[in-house]
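wait is this the right file?? whatever heres the structure
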């Protein structure tokens, strides 16, 4: 059902549709509650005041389907705009976060 998709993920609106609601550097993390790297990423984001949206792929069916579309293999999958990293480490994240276009 392609036509339903736009409305069903309206809460994760794309920057084009609502420039005021999301900053251009929105960080999205697909995670699970038990994953150690997810915990590290969460702590890092909080410590550095980085706004992020987290989706638990085990508790949220919509998040799981988005994750599957990204061909996720393991958690976390972190998106910064168009850029993506699998897993988490500070230097890797800083590279994609600071070079945001």
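ok assuming it is, sequence goes like this
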């Amino acid at each position: 059902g392609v036509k339903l998709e736009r409305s069903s993920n309206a809460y994760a609106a794309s920057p084009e549709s609502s420039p005021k609601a999301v900053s251009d550097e929105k960080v999205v993390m697909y995670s699970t509650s038990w994953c150690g790297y997810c915990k590290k990423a969460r702590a890092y984001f909080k410590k550095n005041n980085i706004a992020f949206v987290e989706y638990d792929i085990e508790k949220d069916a919509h998040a799981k389907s988005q994750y599957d579309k990204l061909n996720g293999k393991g958690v976390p999958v972190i998106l910064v705009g168009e850029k993506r990293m699998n897993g988490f480490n500070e230097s890797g994240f800083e590279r994609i976060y600071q070079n945001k276009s």
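The two ends are 32 Å apart (CA to CA). so i think its the right one actually
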